[in-house]
């Protein structure tokens, strides 16, 4: 067991932090082999790169090798981007070369039926004989900002405490792309494909011991060895937060899994029991996955788990309080001192408890945002308040003044708030107009620089707080 | 009864299609009285405008009157935007002048406690004596594109088959602003405020007979006369589609209603029973309201209510099929002819049923979008398929080619599809990056010009189809 784990660690270290990479199928062109190579160069990977392509002499400034056997140095990791029919031969060569881990990007194996499964088995046998591990096939690669691995342009270069494992390349891509904009920072994202060798249990085992990782996100459709997976999930969830999006929950979805990865999805009731038993958090959509990851990364549990809400829109405020009850959040009952102070500022009514506080656009914009700042400070100093959700409906504010400048001023007001006892959560509501979206985006980045997470809708922000507050009530889970 | 309805029709016609308007509290400034006047001029209102403000001689190019009594013409409608303490006197003058309906924008009455309720009662008594009706107080105005009434810049000028009644100014505003971007067209939106005279039952009665209106949206927090409301809702819902967002569903939300409008929200179970009994569609958030209104306006029921799904992202496709089952939608089983044709195009696997179809970004972009067009045509011609949801995850497509141009080409391919037997629904997934958002916005407008509704997430699009498909199954409900 100790030995297996060491081999696992060694091979996944080689996958995420390789000292040298061979890109088998690299090219100068625009297709995947060319793009992978380009991304590696652009993302600042500082290990050795060995392109392999018998048809080229130089690829993107690097000497190209006809075969991996011709590389006169050690190769830690190989990325295989060649037609399916060539892959088994390439795998054999990698294994003989002493490569620690290969990630097979190519599709066209068991998920396509036919001969695919037999070919997969042969490759695994070859790899095992040489202590080489296989990721994939049928995947889109690895993202690891600290070592310069990437599978798309424009991804974040900042490493965070979240690792994400995805049985779908598209969802791995969504995490890199949407995560970056949303302000979620990952340390690793891996597209695991058909899992012919390394499978979900292996990734969980590895990440359970990974020092960079506190939160593990998972998109999963099917597992081959249920018992091993359950053990690995129990272990991982006892040490880290694990969030799982299970594809193929329903009968129809389960059929759809078969054509996606060639596997059987399993009965969702069994999965639900497993989530309950291990404390893994289950989500049902990509949007909810992003909401939960952002919350786990940016909101910390506060002992007094109650919420104050402030922002523009009376109707939105009423709906927010409804939603609080639905997600099991309690509104803070403000102290008399807070109520009096709010009353003096003119945003409360005669000293009665006014949480949630409805501040119309003209009040938010008043005194260059300082009125809003004062309200936030009063709430943050109230010991009853654990979390403050503040929401701006951006479009009505535009009617009163220059939206970009006032939003920046309001956000700057938050700098002086003591964040040790209160968590701040922002909601920027907007209408989808490109001009407003541009301002929202800038505001989000400004909030991100203050470590304040931003959500698109009040319900989303409250759901995020609820994940944290209700966990802390249950003692860390 | 006949008389009451006639008076009601007359006064609400005067509210929505006034031949002349007095703006009491108009100004040259930037605050509400100035803005209302400016919007009226800019939105193309072609009736008579009479600004009333004793401190000015000319307001925005129009002669200003010291009092409504000084206007030497008939006044259909008055908009009252003056401090609360002056409102009762103004109402008295309006009533004596023979105004048909006033909308009181000013806040500071029963929702603030104190003397407010008594003042409201006095105003109602005065109005009733003169057959004048009151909308409000505490509201933000009226939107009616066909007559040039508006409460914000940049609203749509196109009239549609939806009327919206809102007990929250902010939510009325959201409907105008977000509806416009989303491609939802309203014929009337009214902010009804505290409903001291005209109340929800009146608006429902009026809209039940309104020829422009087929769909009625409603944000409601509380009603004063439950019996009358129930009767009006039954009548309206028997003739039109009614969609209700109820604020103050929960105990906490209900308290919050009290501070928003000064009323009691009522037990939500009673409301739920009422929705069941009348067939009104109930939603729980602003986002869902927009989803349902867009669907009711843009998707028509098709007898074969089954769905085909096509787009990029294998994981997203699996999750989409899960979601279908959750919202009670059936995936269409494609005919052998369709399956064979798809197979020949290279997007199906050996002729088996491949719905949903996972077309990776490079396939969507292939042949300048014509491959996608061919797939859509095959699906549209399959008699089993009632609705086609097509989804583009925009960011991965950018990796292959110029996103803006390819998306436009793909959308243009849809022009030749026979829409009599198949409904098309678009989902444009994106990451929130301003550059991508700009392209998404243009694509949405292009889709809108083809009467194809666009949703942000696959779940949203399927929820929209489900509203229509499951209604048609239940025979029109």
TrEMBL record, chains A, B:
Record flagged with keyword Kinase: no
Taxonomy, superkingdom: Bacteria
SMART domains linked: CoA_binding
SUPFAM superfamilies in UniProt: NAD(P)-binding Rossmann-fold domains, Succinyl-CoA synthetase domains
Keyword terms of this UniProt record: ATP-binding, Ligase, Nucleotide-binding
PANTHER family linked to this entry: ACETATE--COA LIGASE [ADP-FORMING]
Official protein name in the record: CoA-binding domain-containing protein
Source organism of the structure: Planococcus salinus
